[in-house]
């Protein structure tokens, strides 16, 4: 069927399904005007993206910094504890040294000096020499008694 054969009234009804500007302007079934959407501009989106990225990077950096701080604090506390143990060992060694020094000082006052030892040695030599002389005198006396006894025995015989 060609369009010339179809009456004009039917043509208008057939145009209702077409996409002509007249049909497009006709709004069917809407309640009010459509809300106007403001497009997000590139500048405003860039600023928002920058602030979002900056805040995310800052929060991650802060988290990393806190973790590093926690590790560094732990290492510092460990080294402080080790230093404290070393200091306590040193103080105990110093206390022991002080007690040894006190004992040495008391021994110095109660020990003999070289001069004292030499004096005692000389006295002991004198005593030894005196005892040796007495021993020799005693031997001489005993020898004399033996000689006298032998003379008596030779000259006088004992008769029983």
Structural commentary:
The radius of gyration is 66 Å and the shape is rod-shaped. With 160 residues, the protein is mainly α. The model has no long low-confidence stretch (mean pLDDT 82). The chain has a domain at 113-152. The protein is built from four helices and no strands.
What would you call the shape? rod-shaped
User: What count of helical segments does DSSP give?
Assistant: 4
Described by strand count, sense and barrel closure, the largest sheet is: none
How many E strands?
0
Question: What string gives the helices and strands in order?
Answer: HHHH
Give the helix proportion (percent range): over 70%
Structural class: mainly alpha
Low-confidence spans: none
Taking all residues together, what is the mean pLDDT? Answer: 82
The Rg value, from CA coordinates, equals: 66 Å
> Whole-Å distance between the termini?
202 Å
Quaternary status: single chain
Report the portion of residues in β strands.
under 5%
Quick structural gist:
The protein has 160 residues and is mainly alpha-helical. It is built from 4 helices and no strands.
Protein traits:
transmembrane; about 160 residues; transmembrane helix; mainly alpha; membrane; about 0% strand
SSE layout:
Layout: H1 8-15, H2 21-25, H3 42-110, H4 114-155
């Amino acid at each position: 069927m060609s369009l010339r054969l179809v009456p004009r009234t039917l043509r208008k009804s057939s145009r209702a399904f077409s996409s002509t500007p007249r049909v497009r302007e006709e709004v069917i079934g809407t309640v009010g005007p459509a809300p106007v959407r403001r497009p997000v501009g590139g500048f405003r989106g860039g600023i928002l993206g920058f602030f979002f990225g900056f805040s995310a990077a800052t929060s991650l950096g802060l988290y990393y910094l806190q973790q590093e701080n926690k590790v560094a604090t732990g290492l510092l506390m460990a080294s402080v504890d080790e230093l404290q143990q070393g200091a306590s060992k040193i103080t105990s060694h110093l206390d022991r040294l002080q007690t040894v020094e006190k004992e040495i000082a008391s021994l110095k006052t109660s020990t003999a000096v070289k001069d004292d030892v030499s004096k005692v040695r000389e006295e002991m030599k004198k005593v030894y020499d005196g005892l040796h002389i007495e021993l020799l005198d005693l031997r001489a006396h005993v020898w004399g008694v033996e000689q006298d006894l032998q003379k008596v025995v030779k000259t006088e015989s004992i008769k029983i």
